[in-house]
Amino acid sequence: MSVSRKINDMITQSSWIRQMFEAGARLKAEHGVERVFDFSLGNPNLPPPDPFNQILRDTVDSCGVGDHCYMPQSGYPQVCVSIADYLAKEQGVAITSDEIIMTCGAAGALNVIFKALLDPGDEVLTPAPCFVEYRFYADNHGGLLKMARTRPDFSLDLEALDQAITAKTKLVLINSPNNPTGRIYDQASLDDLGRLIEQRSRDFGRTIYLVSDEPYRKIVYDDLVVPSIFQSCDQAIIATSYSKDLSIPGERIGFAAVNPAATHKKEVMAGMALTNRILGFVNAPALMQRVVSCMQGISVDIGEYKRKRDLLCDGLGAAGYDFITPQGAFYLFPRTPIPDDVEFVKALQKERILVVPGSGFAGPGHFRIAFCVDDRTIVNALPGFKRVMQHYQ
Ligand SMILES: Cc1ncc(COP(=O)(O)O)c(C=O)c1O
Which helix (H) or strand (E) holds 95? Predict the structure, then answer.
């Protein structure tokens, strides 16, 4: 066998993802890209906001000696200052550059955090449904992903989380606004979670961290605001990026921020600077660090995603689909009218509609629609969605 047994097993376990991908490629070759309605990827379709290209050009033009060199593993000190200043306002907490480390996206931040915190066999507890990659990220660093159910409306179920915490739990991982459900966790449930983590840390005599994966923080609808995690839990660490709110996922730029109130803040920061290096990231991309430091508080036009959300929700609602209207991010996670979500997704493929079965997100009986696509794709797919629902009703 050319690849390791473990990687081979992982490829086999996620073979339905490959099947989906292959089915999509086949449909596109057969019918043309325009006639296939691809809602399978969370790849933002909006261009980066206006100043991005100009700031990028200005940054390149102003490059001088040493501007493409290695730098401190945490990132350029000046960039960390500008991010800390913005984050302090956003979180309502006095954050300094000492608490920031620039990373290769939110995925890079999560891996840097996990490698710094996890011992072999440690558990990472997350509410389900959840982002597919979490299992792999935990496993990358000897950890084990455990899941606790959420309530039927996908809000946090504190009892379920409490029951799932064990002496091996090293961190609780949340993602709000959530991929795949679009749920935002409210202040009261985050405060409860903070208290629970504090209590269980005392019970088990070891620090349990709360890691908040927030790349969709700025993509929220109906004037909702994502509450500050640092105000709910002292031992909190944020992992985030500019992938979604600046529409630059390919540029791989984000950061991790440790709550200034965290008990072992200095050790955790030192650990993360080291893991950023030894994971092979070394440091976050130099040019992009300088660009995003000039774009604090700027994002794509969220009104565009809201329009797409409403278009999709109105159409699917009229066609008889059952779902929770997303509060943020750009995903809709409807129930399937039959228990077998993979079968339902295959039925949608016959209408040239590509979506992802909920089972892939530990949310069986659902499917995920990524609506970061052209309005035209949504409008043209609605008749197909309707026909498939009618078939099963
Ligand atoms: C919940 C969640 N976390 C992390 C990531 C990774 O984002 P990034 O591109 O910033 O690494 C994604 C990407 O889709 C995501 O949906």
Answer: none
For 33, 37, 216, 381, the CA distances from 19, given in Å and listed in that order, are 18, 17, 28, 21
Strands 254-258 and 236-241 turn out to be antiparallel
Positions of the chain with pLDDT lower than 50, given as ranges:
none
This model's pTM is above 0.90: yes
Among 175, 179, 252, residue to substitute to test ligand 1 (most atoms within 8 Å of Cβ): 179
Cα separation, 300 vs 282, whole angstroms: 29
DSSP 207-238: PPEEEEE-TTTT-B-TT--PPPSTTT-TTEEE
**Over the stretch 283-325, which tens digit does the pLDDT of each residue have?**
999 999 999 999 999 999 999 999 999 999 999 999 999 999 9
- Is residue 216 within 8 A of residue 328, CB to CB? The reply is yes
Cβ–ligand 1 contact at 107 (below 6 Å): yes
Say what the alpha-carbon torsion angle 369, 373, 376, 382 is, to the nearest 10 degrees. Answer: 0
Peptide bond preceding 152 in cis form (omega within 30 of 0): no
Residue to mutate (ligand 1; options 244, 333, 361; most atoms within 8 A of CB)? 244
128 φψ region: left (φ > 0), alpha (ψ -120 to 50), beta (else) = beta
- Give per-residue burial for 327-353: e unless 16+ CB within 10 Å, then b: bbbbbbbbbbbeeebbebbebbbebbb
Q: What is the pLDDT of residues 115-135, one digit of tens each?
A: 999 999 999 999 999 998 999
Separation between Cα atoms, residue 273 and residue 350, nearest integer Å: 49
Total length of the chain: 393
Spatial CA neighbour of 95 closest among 297, 260, 272: 260
What is the CA(387)–ligand 1 centre distance, in A?
Answer: 32
Contacts of 45 (CB under 8 A, 6+ apart): 372, 373, 374
